[in-house]
Every structure is written in C-alpha cells, then in structure tokens.
Specification:
The complex is a heterotrimer of chains A (about 325), B (about 600) and C (about 300). With about 325 residues, chain A is mostly helical. With about 300 residues, chain C is mainly α. Chain C has 13 helices and no strands.
C-alpha cells in the first residue's frame, strides 16, 4: 500500500548537515552533480545575460552590453498599452481553462483505458488516441473551423436535437472562443498527455488490486483508493509544472482561429510579441521577463501549497 | 539566494565574452579593391548609360565568348526568405550558365522565418551566404557591416549592366544613411517597350460570364459593380453543378487582409503606395494622406455593410482562412472579390481541369473609382516600381566580390538572360522567320512540369533581370509577356470579352491612366515596411494594423453602421496615426529632396 | 489486467461500466482518428480536387503525385539520415543524462537535493531568448555542426522531474539492501533503480525522441546554409510554412508571386512526418500498456 504514499518522500525533512564524512560518502554523486551544474550554467544560465536587452534599445551592432540603456522603457510600453491588460487576461484565462480541461481529460482517459482488459484493444485505442498530437495546428484548426461552421457538424447536430433553432455562427461571437480553443486542445492532446499517467498506473503493484478485489471493493473504489493515489504525485508534479506554464497559453491555435472580430478575446502574450516584437528584441525580451516572473510566482505559490499538504513538490 | 548568485556568475562570464561586432572584418578591404584602377573612365560612361535600350548594346556584346573550365568555376551560395522550388544538382541550364559565367549558385530558400528575424540570428551567428536577398532585413545587414558596397562597381564600365538597371536618380534612393549603396531590387524593371499583358496586381475582379450576361457593360463605381453581381446571382443562384453562387467575398485573414483594407486608395485614383496616399492636387507640396479616414473609405465600407446586410456578401467572409477562400474561388462559386492577382492565380489549374474556363468562370479585373466619371485611376501601373527597401546583396563573406559583381553584371547580358528565362534554343523555344521566339505546345507543357523545371531550367529568379522588350527590339524579355504565348493560353469566353471591349491586355480592363513615370517617392510602402516597434511611429503603425484587423470586419457586419464606424474611428485615433503620418511625410520630403 | 483471476462475479454495475467504457473509447477513437484519416485522404487526392477542400475521408482522383513531390524533394534523403541519427543518438544520450541526474536528486540524503532541483526548475521558465543562444553556440563552436542538435537540450527540467517523481515513488528497501551489500551509488543506479524505471524510461524516451524527430527550428537557425546537416523536418517545414508565413513583406519581389504549397502536398508531408515516429510507438508501448510487476524484478 505504501507505494503510492512514498511520493511525499521529499517532504520528510532530514536536516542533513554538510559534514566531511557526508561529503566523502556522497563524493561520486557530488562530482556528477557538479558537472551537471556546469552544463546548466553554460547552456541555460549564460544566455540569461540576454535579459539586459530588455533594459536597452538593443542594436545587434552594439551588442548585448553595448546598446543604449533605456531603463524600464519597454516595461512601461507594455503596461501602458491599453490592450496589454486584456491580453494578459486572455492568456491567463485560456491557460487555466486549457490546463484544467486537458489535465482532467488525460487522467480520465488514462484511468478508463487502464480498466480495459483486452490488451489488443487497449493498444489500438492508445495508438489512435495519440495520433492527433502529430498533426500541425493548421490541420486541426481547419477541421475545427469546418466543424463549427454555420453549416458544420456541430450546428447540424444541435439543430437536429432541437437545442437551438437557428445555426450559431460560433466564430462571430467572442463568448464561444475560449471553449473552442479548449476543445481543440483536448482533442489534439488528450491521448498524448495520458501517456505519462498510463506509465505511472502500470507501476502500481497489481497485487494491490487483487487484494482489493478479494475484499470485495468495487471498480469505483479500486480507482478511488488505488489508482488515483498511485498517480497522485505525478499529477501534482505535472500540475505544478503546468501551472507555471499557464502564461504560455500559446499562439498557434489562437492565431489560426482568432480572426479579426475575435481579437479582443483571442490575443495572447505570444501573439503580441509576434506582432510587436518583430525586429524589436528589447520589447520581446521584456515580455519574456514578465512571463518568467509570473511563472516563477505561480510555481513558488503552488510549491508552497504542496508543501503544506505534504505532497510531492518541485523543490 | 543561490539562484541570484548563479545569475551573477553567469553575467560575469558573459561580460568577458563581451559584445560582438557583426561581421566587420572584410567590408573595408573589399570596397578598396574594387575602386582600384578605373575611376576616371567610369564616371563618364556612368552618367549617360541610364535605362536606354539602344545605347548599351555594344557593351553587352563585348563581354561574352569566354567559357570557363571546371576548375575555374566558383560555387557561391545564395539565400532568400521566400518559398521556392529547389533545382537538382547538375541542372542543364545551371551547368551551361556556370560554363559561361564562371559561377555556380547554390540557392537556398527559407520561408519559415520572417526575414528580419532570420537576418538577426544570422548576424549573431556570423553565418552568411555569399549572396543574399535580405528582404526587410537588408537594412540590418548593412548597419552591421555585412554587405559589400556597390558604389565603386557602379562607376566601373566593366559593370555597365548593373549601372543600367536604374537611372542615377533611382540609384540615389537605394543609398543608405552611411552614404553607400548595398543592394538593387531586381524586380519590376522594364527594358524598352513594356510588353506586359497580364495584370498581376490588385483589382475588383469579376467572372467574365457575368459581364457577358450583362452584354459587356462598362463598370465604373461600387454601386454598379454590386448591382451587376446581384442581378447575375438573382438570375442564376446556382452553378450548373449545383454550387450556390456567392456574389461577393473578401478575405481578411492575417496579412492578406489587404483584400478588404486598401481599396479606398485605389477608389480615389491613387497608385498602390501601400500604407498612405500621396496627394498632389490642391496642396502646396506633395502631402501624405491617410486613406483609412477619407470620405471614400467610409463610403466603401458603408457599401460593404449594405451589401452584407442585403445578403450579397459572403456571410462567412470574416472567419474564413486562406485555404477556405481559395476553395471557394476554385469551386467557381464566387462572382467577384477584391484581391491581388498573384494571391489567387493558383485556381487556374482547377478551372482548366474542370472545364470552368470554358464556362466563363475566369476573372477579369475592373478598375472601380469613387465617383462616376472620375478619370483619376491608377489601378494598373504602367510605370516601373522599384522597391528600394530590399534587393540582392553581396556579403562580406564572399571571398571574391569582384567576381560576384561580375556575375551579377553578366546575368543581365542578353544571351545569358535568354538562357535563364527562355532556355536553350531548339529545346525550349524556336525562332520564326521574323526572329520572334515561340514555343510549341510540348515545350509549353515542359515548362509547366516541376520535374522538367528541376532538372533542366535555372532562372536564378532572384538575380538581376529585366521585363519588357529584349535588346533585339522584337521579343519579350520573359516568355510570359510574348504576344503569341499570351493569346495561345486564353480561354474562349475571355477572348470574347477582349474582343467585345476591344482590349488586348488585362490592364486595359482597368482603364487606368497611362502614367509612365510615377512620383519619384513611389512606393511609400518601402518605408513603412522597414518600420519596427523600437520607434514611436513604428509602434503607431503596428497598432493601426491591429486596430484595422479587428474593426474592419466589425463595421462590415454591423447592424448600426454609423455608430460602429464612429467607434472604429475613435479606436483608430487612439493608435496615434498622426505620429506615423508625420514620419511618412518626413520620408516623402526626404525623397523629394533627393530627386532635386 | 489480471485475466482469469476474477474470482468475484461481474456485477450489473460492472457490466454497465464495461459497456459504457467501451462505447466511449470507441467514440473517442473515431473522433480522434477523423482528422488523421482526412489528412491521409487529402494526401492521395489530385491537386485540382484538393483545392476545393471538400474531401471527406475518401480521396478523389487518387494519385501519388503529392508523395512523389515530397519524396523527390531535394534534401529529403540527407534530411532523413540526419534526423534518424539525431533521434537515435540524442534520445539515448538525453535519457541517460536525465535519468542519472534524476537518480541523484531523488536520493533522500543527497546534500543539495532542494537547491539542485530549483536550479533546474528555473531553467524551465527563464529563457534569454534566441539571440543570446545563437551567440553562445557561436562561441562554443557548435554553429554549423551536427552536435548543435544534441548538446543544448541534453538535460531538460521537465523530463528530469518526471523521472524524479517516479524514482521517489519507488520503495526504498531495494536500495537499502543493495547498499548493505556494499554496492556503490552508480551500481544502485544501473542495477537496482533503472530496471524498475522501465515504464518511465520508455515514456521519457518517447518524449525526447518525438522532440528530436519533430524539431526543425534548430536546423534552420544553426545549419541554415549547411545542406549536409539539414533535417527532414526542416525540409518538410519549408513546404508547410509557406502558408503560415506571417509577414508578406519579406521579399523584394514587390509581392508578385504566391508560392503557397498546395493542400495535398502539405497533407502528404504531414503523413510522411508522422509515419516513422508512429512505428516507434509499439516498441515502447509494451512498457506502459501491459503492466510491469515491480515485485517481479529481483536482483
């Protein structure tokens, strides 16, 4: 039974003192970790020097440290732009909606699939489910557009069921946009996102299920008491990581679906950077720093909550 | 805490690497090598060798006959930020060109990235080709000393073909702030008599069957145009195959929203300056006018709103993407739309395949104007349009700039030019008794085939070239402009329309003024294309675009046009268009100053 | 999952669940399969029909022309070789690198456990942007080489954390007993932990492999002019991207030509992209579909 709950191992606070014996005992690990840190500094932290670009009028010719300094000019430009607040709202809203919908569907799908006993069927379903991940957004959005068109599948279905009387033109009204984006995301990524949960579910000791079955536990109880606790730490870790990413709600799907009239709800930070950051590295970098700031704040917050609830956390 | 320290370390490391200077090393030396020698003779020939076909015949004839051995051929790389087909290794004409010019070009096409963005990374990585068409990144290349200046070559009579590309005044427009010329645009130049019969640009298009049904009327205004479409759609609501007719549609996706956006400048009779109108009448000097706020703009969008609400305009226009738009056009359902010809020319193949061309589904252009009887009309440009903001450049990476410029020069020799665009005589074209080039049906088929083009044809399409008439005074520089080739490919309904109106070229349908010399500043879009958001005016320009993307479809579908138009104009004002317009006026004044 | 061992009878609820579940999954398959099959249908359709955009699962005027165009594309072969090389080499190296680091940070008594994790978490959300990376690669002399595909992404925080979470959830008893036998850290990693991690290794391998297989941006930025280092996806991307070109003013041409790749060719390129990586899947799938009994692994 303990398999699942060991996930919280990180929270078992073992205040280790840095002592000589401990250092010697872990010398191999420390040397390897040191190499990784060097790697990380070179490939991930050195380029962060580029953040200085956000505080200057960056010109390639003058280099990252030689360009004219302008202080917080670009941050001001961002926040004084009336549309920018609207854009942050769109980004966060779509980020959160997408995160919740894709996480729930992926977990649900993984659990339902794990309940299938026919191995062949299971394999086929899983293979099919992850195929759309490999389609580009252009392909997916073009089908989504057809499906939600005034003469499209969805409208026909809704009218024939008598839910609506006249077809809705979904892409002319702003209120339908976020759900459509969420549906597109779910459709494209559910199978792919489920892979990680499936892998975790398979690691749950089958004897636990057998024991539960012997005790007369029903299917729902087994899911509730064995499967979900078994993948709990994975869920939490992925959730925290993805919460840091809600600010990266993406641009492709919004760009491809959100034409003209939908601009007020479809524009995300990434689209903004694409439109306004072209040839202006400084503005793009400023937006990037802002995104990092939001991400890290969210991560720290949710990591803290995870700590309080005794769950697995990022660090 | 720890992360802060790490960051500090990282910063320090980066500091030692320091700033980097683009690709400075060779720019100075190369320009000096070129200038050695011929300075004195150059200036004289340069001054009188503007684009005049008769005078320069001698110089082109003199520079041929030499062929190069395999070991003398230099391989150079070329990059353009445009999608294109790559040719095979060992391509017939490429090898022939290499033998005759001593240069073989490896072309790379790169449409995945915006040119300026790509150029930025290339400068940072120090990885440049020998030749480049930098698109909107040209300026950045020049600023970072990555390009070889043309100035000395333009003075040297050995490079007379290059000099001949533009008049002295036009060359001045290419001059950058540092006093040098770094590129030349290779497109839109006419040698001698213009031969163009197509209209590759923007117009209100209408299917030729609609004109035929109305007995070939002359259509001048928007009212007449939409009445024409409406009447036809009432009479024939469905095509023969059952497809429902869409009288009018307008694409407004992404950058292609010009289909709905820029008609007002044309309706007022101005040429395609792109971002603004340059007004000449009634003002003391040429003045920048914003076509988005003119009475004509309001009239045009009001009309669109009216036809939208009357059900004449495609109800899905605001949400369709480019694929969807092309699908509608290709199905033959759309009677009319406003677009650039090159944007939808790909449907022709389907028309032929399905026999739609015989039913008169092909489009002809109409040059609509704001007022009935208005003679001011410049839909069709009869004059050359050099876009000075970009073109072909030689980079400092090239180990022998003299040879590179020599190659650019040779590209314009008549025999090399014919080889590039017409092909090999006997194989790709024949010459009749009058010295006119023509193709057999089989040859035409060959030049339609991707496989044949890849293994046989090499146009070096982004290298210097001419349109118009060949130096022999008879043939067209490019096959598409040759009279025999043009009429051989026209379908019957189109021929009937040409005859009924007495027109001999697509341009005639537009009834534009025959202005052979446009304002010296033209086109103004070469300046707005260069803008970015590091400047106030660039920011204003970007915001204006955003605002129009959002509002133009909104006002068209509005139930209350007047109030929505007001809202749009208010939102538009918030973008500070005056900052942008002021900058455009400055640029206009600068260009006029240059021409004096 | 435990075939034949069901000692209890299937209740009515169980039957209802099984039926509903089956129907639901079948429906789900149909919905997700549709776009793929439709793309497949387009890829076999003649250009004159595909342009009309009214293909529904069945190609019209079937032809292989689109595939011919894709396969005969210059750079296809070279791109395929490079892509396969980087996928194989990159995935193994990356899996090893991530797994070893995950092993270190999942040791309960490791001294810098927390700070090392934070160190990598930050890399997930903070990026200096494209230009600094390009400059860095230039100074590391990786620009224009094959290795620029391998080194920069070798360790990724996401995969690291996925691996770490899984390793954390393993029972400690194995490791403890091994250490009592005098096994060093690295022996524990290779002999004890790794065999237990097969499902998550398969998952991470898949993630990394798909990442390598699909990436084209690095090929464009770092090997733009080096034909010998081109990747398949970059070549295909050239076909696909002409449509999404975001900016019309990128050329000097004065907007006179439209080189948009036709819809059926884009479809063929998409299918060509998908096929090989889909073939990889069944090999990895068995690790996380059929289940793996932890108890069964004994050392």
């Amino acid at each position: 039974m303990k398999v699942a709950n060991n996930g919280g191992a990180g929270s078992v606070v073992l205040k280790k003192r840095i002592t000589k014996t401990e250092l010697r005992r872990q010398s191999v690990l420390l040397i390897i970790a040191g190499l990784y840190v060097i790697y990380g500094i070179v490939f991930y932290y050195l380029p962060l020097a580029g953040w200085t670009m956000a505080f200057e009028n960056f010109k390639l010719k003058d280099g990252i440290f030689g360009s004219e300094k302008v202080g917080f000019k670009w941050f001001k430009t961002l926040f004084e732009d009336k549309t920018f607040l609207r854009i942050i709202r769109n980004t966060l809203a779509m980020g959160v909606i997408n995160l919740i919908s894709t996480t729930v569907t992926a977990i649900g799908f993984a659990i339902l699939l794990s309940e299938v006993r026919n191995v062949m069927g299971k394999k086929i379903v899983q293979t099919i489910s992850y195929l759309p991940h490999f389609l580009s957004w252009i392909v997916v959005t073009s089908i989504v557009k057809d499906a939600f068109a005034t003469k499209g599948m969805i409208n026909e279905l809704l009218t024939s069921l008598g839910i609506i009387k006249t077809p809705i033109s979904f892409f002319m009204h702003t209120q339908y946009f976020w759900p459509i984006v969420a549906i597109s995301n779910v459709w494209k990524e559910t199978g792919w996102n489920a892979i990680i949960y499936l892998a975790t579910i398979t690691a749950i000791d089958p004897s636990l299920y057998e024991a539960a079955a012997m005790d007369g536990a029903g299917r729902w109880q087994r899911i509730k008491h064995i499967t979900i606790p078994g993948i709990r730490s994975t869920i939490i870790i992925l959730l925290i990581m993805n919460i840091g990413n809600v600010i990266n709600a993406g641009f492709e799907v919004q760009y491809l679906l959100g034409l003209g009239v939908l601009k007020p709800v479809s524009e995300t930070i990434d689209i903004y950077v694409l439109n306004y950051g072209m040839k202006n590295y400084s503005l793009g970098t400023a937006a990037g720093i802002f995104k990092t700031f939001v991400s890290m704040t969210l991560i720290l917050l949710f990591n803290f909550i995870a700590k309080k609830t005794g769950d697995e956390r990022l660090f | 805490m720890k992360s802060k320290k790490i960051f500090a370390v990282a910063l320090a490391c980066m500091m030692t690497v320091g700033s980097f200077a683009g690709c400075k090393k060779k720019s100075d030396s190369s320009s000096t090598t070129a200038s050695s020698g011929s300075d004195t003779t150059a200036s004289q020939t340069a001054s009188d060798s503007a684009a005049d076909p008769t005078e320069t015949e001698g110089s082109t004839a003199a520079t041929e006959a030499s062929t190069y051995g395999a070991d003398e051929i230099s391989d150079y790389t070329f990059l353009a930020f445009m999608a294109n087909k790559e040719i095979n290794d060992g391509n017939d004409i490429q090898e022939e060109l290499a033998k005759r010019t001593g240069v073989r070009i490896k072309e790379t096409w790169n449409a995945n990235q915006d040119a300026a963005e790509a150029v930025g990374t290339m400068i940072a990585s120090g990885d440049l080709p020998d030749f480049i068409d930098g698109g909107n990144g040209c300026k950045m290349l020049a600023e970072n000393d990555c390009l070889v200046a043309w100035d000395d070559y333009l003075k040297d009579p050995a490079y007379a073909n290059l000099k001949e590309m533009f008049s002295d005044k036009q060359w001045e427009l290419f001059r950058q702030a540092d006093g040098h010329i770094y590129w030349a645009n290779v497109f839109g130049k006419t040698y001698g008599e213009p031969k163009t019969r197509t209209h590759n640009d923007e117009a209100f298009w209408v299917q030729v069957r609609v004109l035929e049904d109305a007995n070939y009327p002359v259509i001048e205004t928007l009212d007449e145009y939409f009445a024409l479409l409406e009447n036809y759609a009432k009479k024939y609501p469905k095509n023969e195959d059952g497809t429902e007719v869409i009288p009018y549609t307008a694409l407004c996706e992404g950058w292609r929203y010009f289909c709905i956006e820029n008609a007002p400048e044309f309706l007022d009779g101005y040429p395609n300056d792109g971002s603004v109108i340059v007004q000449l009448e009634g003002v003391d000097k040429p003045t920048i006018v914003d076509y988005n706020t003119t009475p004509t703009a309001k009239m045009y969008f009001k009309k669109l709103n009216e036809v939208y609400n009357a059900g004449i305009m495609d109800p899905e226009f605001a949400t369709m993407d480019y694929d969807g738009y092309i699908a509608k056009l290709a199905s033959g359902a759309v009677l009319g739309m406003c677009d650039q010809n090159w944007d939808f020319a790909q449907i022709n193949n389907t028309f032929i395949e399905k026999g739609f061309d015989k039913k008169g589904y092909n489009y002809v252009p109409l040059g609509l104007v704001a007022q009935k009887g208005q003679t001011k009309n410049q839909w069709h440009a009869y004059a050359d349009v050099p876009n000075v903001s970009s073109g072909i450049c030689v980079t400092t990476k090239c180990d022998d700039p003299d040879k590179a410029f020599k190659f650019l020069n040779t590209c314009l020799d008549q025999d090399i030019h014919d080889l590039r665009f017409w092909g090999i005589e006997g194989t790709d074209y024949l010459v009749d008794d009058n010295g006119l080039y023509y193709r057999t049906e089989e040859m035409r088929q060959n030049w339609q085939s991707d496989a044949y083009l890849a293994k046989h044809v090499c146009t070096y399409s982004y290298f210097p070239q001419w349109g118009g008439t060949s130096r022999d005074g008879k043939n067209a520089m490019k096959p598409g402009d040759q009279e025999s080739e043009f009429f051989a490919t026209l379908s019957d309904p189109l021929k009937k329309a040409f005859d009924a109106y007495g027109y001999t070229a697509y341009g005639d349908f537009l009834r534009s003024e025959h202005i052979t010399e446009l304002g010296f500043w033209y086109p103004m879009y070469s300046h707005s294309n260069d803008m970015d958001t590091t400047t106030d005016y660039g920011m204003a320009w970007a915001r204006m675009g955003d605002c129009k993307h959002e509002w133009l479809p909104k006002v068209v579908i509005s139930k209350d046009f007047e109030s929505d138009w007001e809202k749009y104009q208010k939102a538009y004002k918030d973008c500070k268009p005056e900052v942008f317009l002021e900058e455009m006026q400055k640029e206009l004044d600068r260009r006029i100053e240059l021409s004096k | 999952m435990f075939k034949g061992k069901t000692k209890h009878k299937m209740s009515r609820w169980d039957w209802a669940f099984v039926i509903c579940n089956t129907i639901f999954l079948i429906l789900f398959c149909i919905v997700t399969l549709y776009p793929v099959l439709n793309t497949l249908a387009y890829s076999f359709t003649d250009s004159s029909e595909a342009i009309l955009k009214n293909i529904h699962l069945i190609p019209r005027k079937p032809t292989l022309a689109a595939y011919k165009q894709v396969f005969e594309m210059k750079g296809f072969q070279r791109g395929l070789i490079i892509t396969v090389s980087r996928t194989v080499l990159g995935s193994f190296l990356s899996l090893f690198a991530n797994a070893l680091l995950a092993f270190i940070v999942s040791r309960k008594n490791f001294l810098f456990k927390k700070s090392l994790s934070l160190f990598w978490v930050i890399t997930m959300y903070a990026s200096g942007g494209l230009i600094p990376s390009v400059i860095l690669m230039r100074y590391l002399h990786l620009t224009g080489t094959f290795w620029v595909y391998i080194f920069p992404g070798l360790v990724s925080a996401f995969n690291l954390l996925v691996l770490r979470t899984y390793m954390n959830s393993l029972p400690d008893s194995y490791e403890e007993s091994a250490q009592l036998d005098g096994a060093g850290h690295l022996t524990v990693f290779t002999r004890i932990i790794s065999p237990l991690c097969k499902p998550v290794y398969a998952t991470v391998f898949l993630f990394v492999a798909v990442g390598h297989w699909n990436s084209w941006f690095d090929a464009m930025v770092y090997n733009r002019l080096k034909e010998k280092n081109t990747t398949l996806q970059y070549e295909l991307q050239k076909l696909l991207s002409s449509l999404t070109q975001l900016n019309p003013t990128t050329t000097s041409e004065g907007k006179t030509e439209n080189m948009t790749t036709e819809i059926q060719v884009r479809a063929a390129a998409t299918i060509a992209t998908m096929l090989p990586i889909i073939c990889l899947y069944p090999f990895l799938q068995r690790y996380f579909v059929t289940g793996l009994t932890i108890g069964g692994v004994k050392e």
